[in-house]
Amino acid sequence: MKKLGIGLCLSAMLFTSVVWAAEPPPKKETPPDLYEGTPDWYRAVYKDNVGLSEGAGPFKDYYKPQMLDMYWQPNRHYEPMKNLDHSIFIEKERRDLCVTCHEEATPGVVRDWRSSGHKNPKSTPYLSARTAEIEKRTNRVLNEVHCFDCHADTKKKQIRMPTGEVCGECHRPQFDDFLREREMGRPNHIQSWEANTIVPWYAEAARRGYLYGQHGCDLCHSGAEKCDVCHTRHKFSAAEGRQPEACITCHMGPDHPDAESYGESKHGVIYHQEEEHFDFNRPLSEVRPGKDYRTPTCQFCHMYEKHGRFIHNPVMKGIWRMGTIPPKNLEYTSSLKDYPYGIKIIADKIDIYSEENVAKRSYWLEVCAKCHSDRFADTYLKSLDQFMFQAHTLADRAQKIVEDLIADGYLYPSAADRDPYPLSDGIEKELSPAFLGEPIYNAFKTLKGKFPVVGPILGVYGMFLQQQDNPSNIENYYNRLWFWYKLQGYKGTAHVQQDVSWWWGQAPMMMEFTKIQSEAARLRREGRIEKVSLTK
Amino acid sequence: MKPKVLLDKIGLWSATAVASIAIMFSMAPMNAKAEFKVPTEVTELGKDTYKKYCSPCHGEEGKGDGPLARSMLPKPRDFSRGAYKFRTTPSGSLPRDEDIYRTISFGVPNSTMIPWDVLTEEQRLSVIPVLKSFSEAFEVRKPDPPVEVGLMVRPTEKCIAEGKKIYEEKLECWKCHGIEGRGDGPSAAEQEDDFGFPIKPFDFTTGKFKGGSTPQEVYLRFTTGLNGTPMPSFAKELTDEERWCLTYYVMSLIKPEETKNK
Amino acid sequence: MSEFQVMRHIFFLSVLCGFLGWCGISSKILSAEQQYTEIEVIDGGNVIGNVKYTDDLAAVGLNLYRDWELSDTSKIPSEKLIFSKINNGIKNVTVSIKDITEGKKKVIPTIHPIIDQQNNIFIPHVVPILTGTTIDILHGDEGMHNIHTRSMKNQPFNLGTTYKQRISKKFDYPEIIRLSCDLHKYAYAWIVVFDNPYFDVTDRNGYFEICDIPPGTYKFQVWHEELGNLEKEVTVHPKETTSIEFVYSQN
User: Fold this and answer.
1) Which residues from chain A sit within 8 angstroms of residue B58, using beta carbons?
2) Looking at chain C, which terminus has fewer C-beta neighbours within 10 angstroms, N or C?
3) Binary contact (B118, A83; C-beta < 8 A)
4) What pLDDT, in 10s, does the model give residues C55-85?
């Protein structure tokens, strides 16, 4: 039991990367397929429309989606409206009627569309040139991209909610770029709904009556593989997607305070002061730093790929990623040294000095060097690495305290006396040893989830579902240390926001650490007293 | 016959009927009558069509309370009063079948009532008795004969100037419709229809006249009034010629360059 | 002014409520329609009476508008509820016999009753008429008005009018019809159409009088736009005058 406990405490998975072979960019002739080369269960996350009859992901049978999910994840859950059957308009291809009615029914949408490039794809020389490319590629004449082109499912004769694949029919290079996020593994945008529904606590919470409590999860994780997350409906403006505001509705809060750290940093403050002088109509690759942008935006740094080229996704250059994966370059005292515990589908620890990451760092310096000296930028980023090493070391020490406590049998209430790990029955039934790794799978099989799980990444369940005595205080403290405060310190440092770095990062991390120490001491003391009184 | 062809005929017919009852009385209506087969009773086809395509907004009972109605403004027509806006009959009168058919087929611009020419001619006709069945007014009253539309006057400068005078001084149309015809006059905000819902005076600058954009149709709007709304009939107040002048004046308020992208 | 004007702010039932109420009333009256036979009434009795309001209306005495500069429209007192300071009698309540099947001859007035629009309001506020009566609606102002009626059986109309215009309309079905001007939202009047000649509208002290009723027991009904309906059974004796009282209470 002890041994297993320790083995598992460590775990990490669903949050991190599920890696499958990166595919070569699809051929131009075929329509894009977001799901090509994905495992079978993955289709149940995004594809295989089931309406609202069942959930998504490997645990689809354990919960029924809420009705909103049809908008969050239309490929999987959308059902056309029943009140007014729109199929007659699609059958007779009455394009004119969409606007006639919706101009009054939903005027905002129509006005948005009217002011978009879709309504007038040749209104400026720049747009015309881009439209010409699309016309050449798709072999059709585009004088107007109409409601019908995206919303009418002419095969099923019904209304559909467009997803990235529909956009990709015309915007192929952007879509192909975006698809490449998968090469990097999670966390990324394209697999965000997967990250939402693959985790066992999502279905477990739904089963326990907290489905709607997860509204906050759904709002960000819903269909970030759709394009309208950044280029909002129905304007789909490229300029809008280039503004930092496009990111901040999701990228904020304790686990990734990007809005706060960038927004209050000198970069962000100057952006806010001089926003009106920023020229967002310029494609990123044509932006002249200091002229079009006085400070960088999220997109300008994160979507820079290398050698002056930009890529249409912001994850390619990430080294530390979300900040949850431990680096290879440290000596660990806790079971973090065994990360990822034989779970085959989790990416290994990050080697900050690998050839690939050293190259990535040089691409970062290419961005920084638009304004900063190479030495300054290099020094700054190296200090970020050192911050992260320190933070991971602190987390390692904290994890060691918790693990030792568990190993010595002082966890109270003990794992046997409390609710099991979320959805343990489902994990055992739906996931295979190949998926989880033999030892972890067997642990679920034999102990039915009655064992403690702490630390990156499976231990994060305590942030999302609190059950009967599970997790306990000390585990909660540790979760906050490594998941909240470490990540806040990381973003505060990376985005040069001193307050976030210290007061919301390093300082509470240390405070949490001493809390863990004293909680462990208390539990040990009580445990010893109990033993003595029992032996009397 | 294709629906569109029929539509043309109906359109032609209604135009001719209003414009020149005196001249073409014998010919056109007779021709069109032959095409018209409005069922006298509520048919199954009518019920089905109504249920599928009308009731989502107008409600199963025709009370304008369908499931889609709650977020709509203006609200869908409540048929229980027998108050129809767009008619060829005098103020307050019930509409003739042809009027209902026209509204169904051409729709009401500036509203979610689309031209339902996606439906077959037969389907559209079959709905008419269903609509009438919702109001007891049709049991008690009969529609009056259509109003007479005199010969058109030429839209000369002088005529338009006279229309402006009527608009601004005699009838004070501007009180609701605004001096520039934008529907923003001083009394505009407080207007309510017979069902207690706020109603906006028409904005002439859009040029999308709800009852049709030909001069004859515009002429008919203030000759017959819009039943169920504050818009009265001016049949008593204006001579035939004055009405033509007012017609041309309000049509001169259209600002196509502003409305192109509206 | 002799009557007490109850300002609209005291009775804040919305226009819409009143309007909905009217819908209900109108359909009720429609359904109660019945045959009426004209006979010669020799020994008919009379009913006189009073319609009152009971509640303590001390608030009425307050002039909330004193010392305020008001726009012209705000100075026009609402006619929604007018009652006498002397005896709490309510003006503009129609009184009718609901279930009378035979009685005096229906006399349709040859001189048309008049509703005049003066200073943007309709005078009088409530006009009870017999079916078949024609009403003349006059325009006494310089500005523009429209005359907008809302009815189901009687054909509604909505006509724009200017100075000196006279509109004659005949009403053939019993119904309570609201008449309004959309240009002056506060201006409205009621035409109450009855299908028998036994009806009256109360004066400023709430008094009414109905004469030549064949002896018997009848249901009397009163209607007020704001206060609604009341009913009472009254026995009419030959050649006698019966005195009755209708009392509206706030509850």
Assistant:
1) none
2) C
3) no
4) 655 344 445 555 556 555 566 677 777 877 7
The fold adopted by the segment(s) C1-92+204-251 is Immunoglobulin-like (2.60.40)
- CA dihedral angle for residue A256, residue A262, residue A264, residue A265, rounded to 10 degrees: 130
pLDDT at C248: 84
pLDDT level of residue A29 (50, 70, 90 thresholds) = low
Higher pLDDT, A250 or C20: A250
Q: Over the stretch A36-48, which tens digit does the pLDDT of each residue have?
A: 777 777 777 777 8
- Which of A94, A101, A114 faces B261 most closely, judged by CB atoms? A114
At the second CATH level, the architecture of C107-195 is: Sandwich (2.60)
A384 vs A222 pLDDT, higher one: A384
Closest CB from C143, C165, C173 relative to B237: C165
- The residue-averaged pLDDT of C183-193 equals 89
Across the interface, whether the CB atoms of A83 and B56 are under 8 A apart is answered: yes
Chain B CB contacts of C157 under 8 Å are 90-92, 225, 233
A7-25: average pLDDT: 42
Domain boundaries of chain C, sorted by first residue = 1-92+204-251, 107-195
Evaluate whether B104 touches B53 at the Cβ level (below 8 Å). no
Asked if C162's CB is within 8 angstroms of B237's CB, the reply is: yes
Determine, for residues B53 and A105 on separate chains, whether the beta-carbon distance falls below 8 Å. no
Closest CB to B118 among A84, A92, A105: A92
- Does residue A308 register a pLDDT over 70? yes
Q: How far is CA A10 from the centre of its chain?
A: 21
Which of C194, C162, C164 minimizes the C-alpha distance to C177?
C194
In terms of Cβ atoms closer than 10 Å to its own Cβ (0-12, 13-18, 19+), residue A181 is buried
* C3 pLDDT higher than 80: no
Nearest to A118 by CA among C63, C2, A110, C185: A110
Which residues of chain B are at the C interface, by a Cβ-Cβ cutoff of 8 Å?
81-83, 90-93, 135-137, 140-141, 144, 170-172, 175-176, 187, 190-191, 194, 196, 222, 225-227, 229-237
Alpha helices in A92-241 (DSSP H): 95-105, 107-114, 125-138, 147-151, 164-170, 172-179, 181-184, 192-197, 200-207, 215-221, 238-241
Chains linked to B by 3 or more Cβ pairs within 8 Å: A, C
Mean pLDDT of B88-94: 93
Which domains are present in chain B?
37-140 (1.10.760.10), 157-259 (1.10.760.10)
The ipTM value here is 0.81
Burial of A387 (0-12, 13-18, 19+ CB in 10 A): buried
Are the CB atoms for C193 and C171 separated by under 8 Å? yes
**Chain B residue closest in CA terms to A86:** B53
Give yes or no for residue A270 having a pLDDT over 50.
yes
Show residues of chain A in contact with B68, CB under 8 Å. 83-84, 105
Predicted local distance difference test score (pLDDT) of residue C250: 67
Q: Is the pLDDT of residue C8 over 90?
A: no
What is the Cα–Cα distance from C105 to C40, expressed in whole angstroms?
Answer: 7
Cβ neighbours of C155 in B, within 8 Å: 92-93, 141, 144
What does the pLDDT look like over B201-245, one tens digit per residue? 999 998 889 998 899 999 999 899 999 999 999 988 889 999 999
C15-52 confidence digits (pLDDT tens): 334 444 444 444 444 444 568 888 988 888 999 999 98
Taking CA–CA distances from B93, the nearest residue in chain C reads: C155
Return the exposure string of A58-80: e unless at least 16 CB atoms fall within 10 Å of the residue's CB, then b.
bbbebbebbeebbebbbbbbbeb
Which residues from chain C sit within 8 angstroms of residue B188, using beta carbons?
Answer: none
DSSP class per residue in B161-189: HHHHHIIIIIS-THHHH-TTSSS--TTGG
Q: In chain A, what are the domain boundaries?
A: 79-160
